[in-house]
């Protein structure tokens, strides 16, 4: 009986299967971790790009712009109102980005800090416009330290005459 137990205990038939299973788990966790971090980096860059594009949309459509209010999100000949800027930036979001929050504002100052004829409600030529974009990003892989991150991007520029 002892010989039979020593023979069974000395064999290594299941060792390679267990090693393969453990190494596969580690490998796939690393691959999905890299993919998840790549998605996070993509969203981070998108938020910055979207804020810049929202600001650009506002600065080229100053008070002298002869557009109208937007009928759809694909209409580009629109005045730079808060709703139109928000609609335009949210239309830039690729699928899977998440909820894009856009906050356009007009600080009511010129670039030198003086109030001048600037208002806090619309695109007046020579005044600052500021667009803040934020996206809540959720990791797919549950091994990340936090399950959700918020990426913010802000851009400001002067409304063109």
Give a verbal description of the structure.
This protein has three helices and three strands, in the order αααβββ. The protein is of the alpha+beta class and 161 residues long. It has one domain (15-158). A three-stranded antiparallel β-sheet has the order 1-2-3. Helix 2 packs antiparallel against helix 3 (82-92).
Question: Secondary structure elements and their pairing?
Answer:
Layout: H1 2-10, H2 15-59, H3 82-92, E1 100-105, E2 128-138, E3 148-158
Antiparallel strand pairs: 1-2, 2-3
Helix pairs in contact: 2-3
What series of H and E elements makes up the topology? Answer: HHHEEE
Tell me about the largest β-sheet.
3 strands, antiparallel
- The helix-and-strand class reads alpha+beta
How many structural domains in the coordinates?
A: 1
- Number of helical runs? 3
Please report the total strand number as a whole number.
3
The first-to-last residue Cα distance is 97 Å
For this structure, the quaternary state is single chain
**General shape:** rod-shaped
Give the C-alpha Rg.
27 Å
Approximate strand percentage: 15-25%
Q: Which strand order do you get reading across the main beta sheet?
A: 1-2-3
Instruction: Give the overall pLDDT as a whole number.
Output: 80
What is the percent of helical residues?
A: 40-55%
Low-confidence stretches: none
């Amino acid at each position: 009986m002892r010989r039979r137990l020593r023979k069974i205990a000395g064999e290594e038939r299941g060792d390679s299967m267990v090693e393969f299973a453990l190494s596969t788990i580690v490998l796939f966790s690393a691959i999905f971790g890299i993919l998840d971090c790549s998605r996070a980096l993509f969203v981070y860059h998108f938020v910055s790009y979207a804020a810049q594009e929202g600001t650009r949309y506002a600065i080229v459509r100053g008070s002298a712009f002869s557009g109208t209010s937007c009928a759809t999100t694909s209409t580009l000949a629109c005045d730079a109102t808060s709703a139109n800027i928000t609609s335009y930036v949210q239309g830039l979001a690729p699928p899977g980005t998440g909820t894009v929050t856009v906050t356009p504002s007009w600080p009511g100052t010129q670039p030198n800090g003086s109030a001048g004829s600037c208002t806090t409600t619309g695109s007046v030529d020579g005044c600052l416009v500021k667009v803040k974009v934020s996206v809540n990003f959720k990791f797919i892989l549950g091994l990340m330290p936090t399950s959700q991150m918020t990426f913010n991007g802000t851009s400001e520029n002067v409304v063109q005459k």
